[in-house]
Amino acid sequence: MKHRTWKIMGVLALIVSVMLSSRPVFAEKKALVVAGDEEKKGGYLVEITQAAFSRVGYATDFRFVPWSRALTKSIAGEYDVLLAAYYTHERAEKLLYSKPIGVAEVMLLQRKGSDITYRKLEDLKPYRIGHISNSKVSPEFDKAEAEYLNIEYAFDAETNIRKLLAGRLDLMVEKKQRIVQLVNTEFASEAHKLAFVNPPLHINYFHNCVTKINPDHQKIIHDFNLGLDIIRKDGTEARILKKHGEDKQDL
Question: What is the pLDDT of residue 110?
Fold first, then answer.
């Protein structure tokens, strides 16, 4: 009887060993401070980032601040990770980028009745356009912004929507998802006064980033990408996207 008990225990130990060896095991690492702008708080990009880092042993501490501060302090190394940034060559000189974690259509928004249309960026010259400080759209738009577009800057999309509704702006630039979120909540009573201008200015991809002055920047991004692969394969990412009403993304 005793011999049989030991035999059963040996088989169970073997099964447990096989189960553990079939999935990656990661030691718990230090908590990473992840900085992003307020509009991302509670959204799918936060959940995907937290889940991916968790799978490879990192705890995450999210801080939500104005975008300009998140960007500059992440580059300076005051935050460990910059949450969900667009790729630009200028930023890539200072930041190491992860695989894409999300997609964003960048749109122009106008007041209904303005009937503004455009075929090329030069068509937008006559208009006052609201934009977020230190935010990027595309190389073409960013060049036009620097050279001839009439841009007025704010720290958040809410300010630009208020200025647009008050007639202090003709257009504003923002991600479609963010505009839809705001007009369905904070600006629901005035949603009927606003309309998108087609086509989209650009389709951008979100990435997480780590400053290159961090000696562990390559390891952190490598580990995050590994965690991202894991949650994509096991269905976690798909469940997060469904929860937030986001379509499955081709990244």
Answer: 98
